[in-house]
Amino acid sequence: MKKLVPIFLALTFLSLITLNVAAFAGKGIIHGKVVEEVGGLVVPFAGVALYESGAEQALFTTQTDENGDFKFINLKPGSYKVKISSVGFSILFISEILLTEKDFEKNLGTIKLSSEASTLTEVVITAQKPVVEFGADIITYNVGSSILAEGSTATDVLKNVPMVQVDIDGNATISGKRSTRVFIDGKPSEYMTSNIADLLNVLPSDAIEKIEVMTNPPSKYSGDGEGILNIVLKKGFRVGFNGNVGVTAGLQGNTNTNVNASYKGKDYSVNGGGAYGQNVGKSDGEVYRKNIFADTTFYNNQFNNNRNENERNFVRLGLNWDITPKQNLRLSTNYNKSDNENRSGNDFHYINEALEEVRLRNQQNLGAGNSNNFVINADYNLQTDTSGGKLSMGLTFNTNSNNNYRTFNRRYAFPTNLNPTLQQNSNETENNGLTFNLDYDKPLFKKRDRFEFGLAYNYRKNDNDLLVENFNFTSQQYITDDKLTNRFFYNENILGAYTAYNYRKNGWGAKTGIRAELTDVKFDLSTGERYHVSPYLSLFPNISLNRFFRKRYNFGATYSVRINRPRENALNPQVNNADSLNISYGNPDLTPAYTHQMDLSFGAFGNKWSFTPRISYSRSMGVIERYRTVNQSGVSESTFKNVGANTAFSLMLNGNYRPTQKITTNASFSVFQTKYTSQLNTSLNRDGFSLRAVLGLSMQLPYKTAFESNVNYANRLNAQGRSRGSVNSSFGARKNFFKNTLSVRVSTNDPFGRRNNIIFNQGNNFISESYSTNNSSNVSLSLSYRFSKIKSTKPTAPAPPKI
């Protein structure tokens, strides 16, 4: 049955994209041309959505062609509004477009988009966007349009984003990519916290505008990672005072309360928000491991249970100030704090070759921890000339601390003559970081082309202090374990520079760029070991070619080089023996892994549908992955290794289809063929397929009611095994009251059973299978109230004509 799930999802997806598109009965036409406000350069591939007046969901969506033109045809008489959006520009709405039998064609003329740094010329009305928008090399998940996203956190939202996988620990990755970076407003989030999963679990969804999945980041971004997840926060674009208050409660003990507000005046805007939440996580697991040696074979079976209670707080503030018509300053800061308590138990069964149990150990674990994270950002933008040249400078400072305290009480049920042990660990971690960037871009040759260059500097410091103490039952005192106690110091400096050139003409677009980064890393231990990685220079070329033709088709090809640098968590040799049968530690001898990746994409767009298949190929050398060995005593040791080379070939099918005005579907199906080759260990020479599928449905129902569902399937290969197929699902319904100011949402996650995780691993001398479940089955209720006091704002000249 499990094998049929991906086949079923694939067939469902293919059936959706092959349905015939029926034209609306009518002869009405709305068309126009989109250009940049400064310089008048056309804006190709901008998203254009058509709404019936008063509707929450778009009637049709399209893109501007290579000349910035768009057109909607076959429209019925009525009143419409148009929304135009493009990356780097403020969203523009044109309302009160009236079509009649006598006046059935409306030319909106030349429509000018302003940059995000200059938001005073926009006409803004709240409206519903499509939940998922597929582009040639980017997927955009509009959080505000998703019912399932309301009243949740960034981690919950990411679980429903196409091509994104979230593991049981809350770590998000792009499917088919081994290293994914998570950005907040275009800046790396790993500089903001010691644990990205903690940050995502505390960031409320109501503070997020959209999530961008970038499979081929441009040269402006650091060469780190094979892909980027960029979380874009709301900035408060509307004139006047507006915001929302929300509360969510679930049957599993999860609660969340948040408030967000913004005020926009003549030349400035301020925004802010806060959240408080609690969460209870429960899980159970079983691990069966067969240990194979030349003289014997024995078994270790392990049964685990875990309960984790988490309390979190989040506060953010922002200021956007238009100093002059050519200068803009944006300041933002956020602070988050979390506290957690953990209780878990482990039963370890030791079984000999004759399948006789010779030892049983019970372990009880207690833990508590807290983290504090503070970030401040400053961005300055200057328009350098009338042709559209722009200089941007950014500075980010962050500091965070993470403290964890745990005790491990180990006793033997039999044989009873074995002595118990009691251990306590204190782990205090501090991170500090500073990033600076200077970017300049300018239109050239009658504003047809664009030239970019920039500099960047990143600094980060990590201090990890681990104290391990064992209880002496004779003296009734804790004694420091010198073998496990140490302090890890890490310093990293990266200096980067890039240049890029963007060419556009007659439907063709080409962009080429190269980025250079000089990396200097030093780290050492309090026990005396010192490491200095010799500074190394890395070059990252990036080439993309795009062709837009017949106003509905788009073809793209890209090539880039990316790097996966080993960072403190992978380099730190401190031993984690919380599970003494399965210990783990870092590897200070790791070297960077480089990946060459190529994509071919095709896009087809209609009034009711879009289809964007993509073929990708990548070749990685020195791949960094976890590597496990088992010693003669049966203890599994897990560390990071440069396991060898990896070749991956993937086919991704993404699409949207809107069969009616009230129903929208989106689907994504990916298959990856992966091959590992290694000189480290012949057991790593393996190949196989990984699958990923997402199917989503949203419906606008009568009486201001809406419904949304999402089903995910994943099955992934790794260097030493496979994470076997699992299915998770989400369903939600929402009803609005009082002119859409109050919304009530009921949602359920995994209603058909708790999420199961099955992992198979195999090495030279062991075979392991693990099964785990968590309390993912949940029903929650959310209430959200939106308040607004908006002034009537007219666009300043030049502006779209009034219809």
TrEMBL record:
Keywords: Cell outer membrane, Membrane, Receptor. It is found in: Cell outer membrane. InterPro entries: Beta-barrel_TonB_sf (IPR036942), CarboxyPept-like_regulatory (IPR008969), Ig-like_fold (IPR013783), OMP_b-brl_3 (IPR041700), Plug_dom_sf (IPR037066). It comes from the Bacteria. Residues 383-785 form the Outer membrane protein beta-barrel domain. This is Outer membrane receptor proteins, mostly Fe transport. Transmembrane segments: none annotated. Pfam families: CarboxypepD_reg, OMP_b-brl_3. SUPFAM superfamilies: Carboxypeptidase regulatory domain-like (SSF49464), Porins (SSF56935). One of its GO terms (cellular component) is cell outer membrane.
